[in-house]
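User: I'm writing a short report section on ligand binding and want a predicted complex to refer to. Could you take this sequence and guanosine-5'-monophosphate and write out the structure as tokens? A short remark afterwards would be nice.
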Amino acid sequence: PVKFKPVTWREVEEGCAKIAEQISSRGIKVDVIVGVLRGGWIPARLLSDYLGTPTMGALEVKFYRGIGETAERPVVTQPLIVDIRDKVVLVVDDVADTGKTLNIAINFLTHYGPRKILTAALYLKPWSMHRPDFYAEETDAWIVFPWDKAETVEELVRKKGLSLEEVSKITGEDIEFIE
Ligand code: 5GP
Ligand code: MG
Ligand code: MG
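Assistant: Sure. The structure tokens for the complex follow:
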């Protein structure tokens, strides 16, 4: 059975504050923050606020299975607009699970000549092949973020046949199903 970890907005703020503290205490000055769409965007925006780094960009990474491929491969589906040449870049995602997303983001960003690429994720799964430079907490549970609650509910009700009562226990509060 899948273990779920519902995360509150306050925990999101606290996690981002913890990451900002780790970065500042190492004396690092971040020039550009790149959020990984869509889940990394809100943590990225909070870090922009906490670190006083107004320059932001975004990258979208999606998973695809090509012809003859057995495993899904991450692909950058929305390119970078912000200039990162000679800049210290912080790439932010909500969670590093397999770690493939952050790895592909690093590979992609390297081509634009940054001075340094650092990574951050609110959560880290213990089996990830990429260990972010900064993270708030390690967990092996499936995290339900405030920004993906509706899609989690949708999937659990429609695809897995759970009742709304069972789903409420997972998402951590009373939920309504929007038709
Ligand atoms: P990766 O496996 O490449 O490290 O993570 C890919 C993406 O899967 C993440 O950016 C995130 O959107 C999604 N993901 C992975 N683990 C979780 C999880 O526990 N909860 C949620 N909501 N999304 C996850
Ligand atoms: Mg994601
Ligand atoms: Mg997501």
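A remark for your report: Residues 36, 39, 74, 93-101, 142-143, 145, 148 surround guanosine-5'-monophosphate (ligand 1) (CB under 6 Å). Residues 147-179 form one domain.
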